[in-house]
Structures are given as C-alpha cells and as structure tokens.
Write a structure and sequence with these properties.
The complex is a heterotrimer of chains A (66), B (376) and C (268). Chain A is mainly beta and 66 residues long. Chain A has one domain: Ubiquitin-like (UB roll). Chain A has a 5-stranded mixed sheet, with no helix packed on it. In chain A, a hairpin with a 2-residue loop joins strand 1 and strand 2. The longest helix of chain A has 7 residues. Chain B is built from 15 helices and 9 strands. Helix content of chain B is 40%, strand content 12%. Chain B has one domain: Alpha-Beta Barrel (TIM Barrel). Chain B is globular, with a radius of gyration of 20 Å. By secondary structure, chain C is an alpha/beta fold. Chain C is built from 8 helices and 10 strands. Chain C starts with 14 loop residues before the first strand and ends in a 23-residue tail after the last helix. Classes of the chains: A mainly beta (66), B alpha/beta (376), C alpha/beta (268). Chains in contact: A-C, B-C. Chains A and C meet through strand 5 of A and strand 4 and helix 2 of C. Strand 5 of chain A pairs antiparallel with strand 4 of chain C.
Amino acid sequence: MQIIVNGEAQEILSECTVFQLLEDKAVTLKTAVVELNGKILRQELWQSTAISASDSLEILIFMGGG
Amino acid sequence: MFYEQITEWQQRLPESSWASFNGADVERVLVRETLRPQDLAILLSSAASSYLEPMAKKAQALTIRHFGRTISLFTPLYLANFCSNSCLYCSFHTGNDIVRCKLTVEQVIQEGEAISSTGLQHLLLLTGESRTQSGPAYMEECVRALRPMFASLGLEVYPLSTEEYRRLYEAGIDSVTLFQETYDEITYAKVHPAGPKRNYHNRLEAPDRACEAGISSVNIGALLGLSDWPRDAFYSALHADYLQRNYPGVEVSISVPRLRPYAGSFNSSATPVTDAGLLQIILAYRLFLPRAGLTLSTRESPQMRENLLSLGITRMSAGALTSVGGYSKTENVGSAQFEIADERPVPDVVRMIRAKGYLPNFCDWMNMRERNGVGQ
Amino acid sequence: MNDIMQSVNKTDDSLLIGGVNLLSRLFVGTGKFSSHEIVPRVLEASGTQVVTMALRRVDWKNPQENILNYLPQNTILLPNTSGARTAEEAVRIARLAQSAGCGNWVKIEVVQDQRYLLPDNWETIRATEQLAKEGFVVLPYMSPDLGAAKRLQDAGAAAIMPLGAPIGSNRGLQTKELIRILIEEISLPIIVDAGIGRPSEAAEAMEMGAAAVLVNTAIATAGDPVFMAQAFRLAVSAGRLGYLAGPGERRVAAEASSPLTGFLQEGN
C-alpha cells in the first residue's frame, strides 16, 4: 500500500507497524522522532501502532547543528 | 513595586556596610562606566566626601555629554495652600496660623500672564492637600485655563489615582512632581502625624500611577535633611532608576530640596545637609543616573546655584514665589511654603547662566496634544 | 574586604539555567563538522556541558547516524529549531525534539532571512511564549534588541542568546554595544551566540559580563577542531575570571587644586 514518508511516496507491505518500518529502514531507534499524520507518536506506541494506507509519516533524527 | 527594593537594600546594606566603605572603594567606583546600587552607596558614604573634585569632573563631563551646556528653566505657581496634613516641617501644616487662600480661575489666568511675560514656558502647579478646596476638578480647571499660555505644565500636588492622573494628562499636564520626603518609614511616620499624607505606600506608588496614566515625565526626591541623608539620597536615586527601568517611555528627574527655614518650629534630628553634602548628593545622582534630569530649586542661595549649575544640574527654577499668587498684583496672596534664598528675577538668573557659559532653555517641550492656538 | 564587594564567590561560579548548575560557560554546536567521529574528542576538549543539535528528516539514501550517539554521557541536549520560519514551526520542532526523550531544553532559532540567517525576533518571542507555557527551558536566539529581550524575558525565557554577528561570519562581536546594553539591563543570563570566530572574541564577550558563549563554526571549521575547542575552553575561563576580578586599579589622579569644588567652605 502507499504511504508518505518524509514527504515522499513509499510502497510498503501491508500489516506493518511503525516499529517494523523503522527497523526496516535501519534507523537508529533510540532517539528517532516520529510524527504520524501530523501528531507526535511516542516511542512506547511504535510497536503497537499499525500503518494504514495513505498515512503520512515524518521520521526525524538529531543531526549536527549550531 | 519599588518598596521591595527598599527592603532588599536595607538588608544588603546595613549600617556596618556603609561604615566600612573606604577610599579604595570610591576609587574603584570612579573608574566604572556604569554604577550599580552598591557603587551609589559608596559615593554617598562619608568615604567619598574627600573625592568631590574627581566626582565633579566626571559628573560635569557626563552632564555635558548627555544634556549639553544647557539649563532648563521653570517656575512654580501655588494655586492654593489649604491643607489637611500636619507635616512637621511645612508652613502649610493644618495647625499653622497662616493666610490660607486659593486662586480663582480668573486669578490663575492673571498669574499665568504675569509669569508668561517673563518668557518662562514651563510652569509647575502646586496645591496643598485638600480635596475639598483644591481637588482634581479644580486643578483641571486651572490646567485648562493655563494650557494655552505655556509649552509645558507640571503638577506637584498630593498623590492621585491613576484615573485622576489620566484626566489631568488629558487636560494638559505633562509632568508630575512628587517627593517622598523621606524613604525611612519611621521618620516618615514621625513627621507626618496626621492627615492623608500619613499613608507612606500610597505616596510611594503614586509615581507609578502617574506613569501608567500616560504622564510623560516624573520628578521625585527626598526632602534632604529630614532623615539620614545618605540613605534618603540612596533610595531617591534607586527610585528614579526603578521608574526609568519600569516605564522606559517616561523621562525621570530627581530634585534635591534641602530643608529650609519655614513657619513652624520643627527641628530635624538628622544630621543637616551641608553644602558639601548637597554637592556630594548631586554628583552621586549624576554618576549613577547619567540620563536623569536633576532639578535645583530656589531654596538654594545664588552662590550655590551658580556653582552647582555646571556640576550635574539640568533644570532650575527662576523668579520663583512659594506664596499663593503673588506674581501679578492680585490681592489673593497666601502665605509662602518656605523661604526662597535666590530671589533674583528671571533676567538675572538668565544672565548668571549665560555667564557660566551655559544656555538657558525656556522651552524644552512641545505639547503634541491639542493646543488652543498658542502664539510663540 | 567589604562583604558587598565579595558578591561573587569565585570558587563556586556556576551558571544556573533551567534548574541546572553549569560549571562550563562554553556551549558548543555540532554543525559543520567534517565528520561525526571527531565530535567526541572535540566536546571533551571543550569541557562543555551543553551541546546544540538540529532535528532533520532521516535521509534513507545517505543514512547518517544520530549525532546523539557521539555525545558524552550527561551532556545537556539543546536542540535548536533551525529550519523554522515561523513561531508555529519552531513550536512544532521543539515538541518533536522533546518527544525523543532527551530533555526539555530548546534553542529557538527562527529565521526568515535566508541571506544572512538573521533571526526573526517577533516570531521568536511568540514561540518563546508558547514553549515556556508548555514547560520548556527556552533559550531564544535573537538579534540584540533591548525591547525584544525584555519581551522574551517577560515571556519566560530561561536565558537570552543575542548574536555577536551573523551566523558563520566569524567576524567577532559586531553587536558588542548592543550586547553590553542587554547585559546591563536584562537580569537573565546573556549567552552570546553566533559570530564568535576566535578564542579572544569569546574571552571578550565573557569580560563584558556575558554569562556564557555558544561557539560552533569557529571550532568545527578550524584546522584542528580539538585544539580549537581547547583554546575556547581556556578563553572562556580567562574571560570569566577577568570579569570577576573587576577592572584594573586605575588610580584616580590626585589634584593639587579643586577648580570645580573649591567654592565649598570649611565647616558649612
């Protein structure tokens, strides 16, 4: 199904949780930040939240900055 | 509110601190650009009394930098001397047997014309504290009558409410003068035994109300000599600093009235302010508040005024009378509030200022609110 | 010595922000480094306790490791809201950063000017109001204007971060006089951020009475960032000690005559 991740269209297998998506993308999980459909999704809920078609996700991490 | 600063500094600077300041402390302060309250205290302490010359040099230079070589002129007009207070140090004390009167609006206009003909453009209006004889409505009437004749009108009366200040501002008052007399509560209670003036806090907070009401300039100070003068000078300057910081749009000045002979028999128990003491206060004020106005009244002798005018002063009264009326030949002449030491008329004062290389400034203000066709 | 003159105890000169007593007055930014690997050594050399970082979308094509992995334990994280052009965006970024679970400090950086990267004081004030209400420890980066600083103070900022010069310009304290006024008039810690290009400039800011400085470009782009970090550490300490010691004892010249005050008579 189609979803939007960081502003880009992505195809994913159905029945995927947020946690699985991040794992799949090899994102260092500990301090990533996830926004699902415009609302912040707390880490405790990543494993239990399923992604639906046309969901929009923002996945952010901390990078160098001044 | 400012009272919190008074209690804070009373604790931070007990008597022992004042007594411990020495010449090295003064020298350290004199090389600073900006002074903190503790530096102000050092300059007001006895340790600084032998440093008046370097303080004067610095104060003179600072004043010239921020104000130029100019002195603004004004005069007071007492509208009425009815008073319900019993201030021990004042001729208008309710128990004193003096000639009480109040100017009618016609007489006010006459006085205004007489004063205006000397060229003076800044007029300070005063009354004793009597809401029945000289309440805000009466003041407003006088203000409206005088507004067309003067560039700027100031008010030195008893503490008013914010709303009353606002109405007077609308009527044409630009500045409010209010002296706390003394910041020491014990002395304050002693010298104000009866009448509305007993209320220390109401008076202390009145400048705030005036600022909130939109008044453009406030003038404060202690009556030097009522209480221990280094402390009163310290809190006067801190009060000015507080008003500058909290009401950045308001021009703040301090006056340095020294206790003078008057009708009555009050003898202050505090150490009198000598000429050197008065100078020290003026210099300390200037160094602590580079941009505050400093006002000198005609309580001081011609010699003192002439010598002090280049050492921090920015405003002076000229040709003043402290009786009710008296500028014109009006019959209504009430008793004076205090004796004036410099009785020279305006042209003589102007000559003195020019002789010192300073410019006498008659008009330092433009009233942007509606004026009734003034001819300049 | 008079008690009041010893108003600062030199052995305990910590900087209190957001309930934390900081011993280091050098904050370090992690941007513009050639590689992340050098960052731990740089931070250690700097002695810093507060480090800034940005929040960015993960880039799958060039996956970058999370900068947080390179920070020493117990570092206070100061995420900035860079990228935000409005108060709303800054607030959103702050909330996102907080949800990552690394504390509630935030540096507000709202820039609408892409040419000089000058901060927008107005949006910064609005963001500060909102985030302070939400319990953040807010450190707003701003253009040194006294009126704006007062509003930031009223809005609940924990400190004020005026720029010394535009970001990355390495020009030193171009806004020196304005910063001096802030230090005089604002009772919050003033942390000079942006524009400090040399250790001497950091020392100068500290001598003026700044509470701390934030340095990024000067360290990250130095020939040897580790050495430069160490230099800044020393400079900040030197400047701070110089400030605490007070200005030098210039003697007030003794005068033989009293031209201005000679009019006073004895015993008057």
